[in-house]
Amino acid sequence: MSIATLQEPIAAIGDDELYEVVDGLRVKTPPMRVFSVWITSDIHGYLAACAKAYDAGRAIAEALFHLPAPVNRDRRPDVAFVSYQR
Fold first, then answer.
1. How many DSSP H helices and E strands does the chain contain?
2. Which domains are assigned to the chain?
3. Strand ranges (DSSP E) for the chain?
């Protein structure tokens, strides 16, 4: 499935659906398959444990991040680490 097939007008995507913003267009993200969710859960667990052990930050899953430069984009990584310094 390509990104082009998932692009829809903003009004057509419900607020409860997962999406990213790419070049000003709200793009639905396809659902993850079971194996991908399993791997994501494992990575999140290890990252969260390490972040807590070193009091370094937080592990986050499926959060929407606004990335301002060079072009405004909102991305939703499967797993992310946000440091307390950030």
1. 2, 6
2. 3-83 (3.90.1570.10)
3. 19-22, 25-28, 57-61, 65-67, 73-75, 79-83
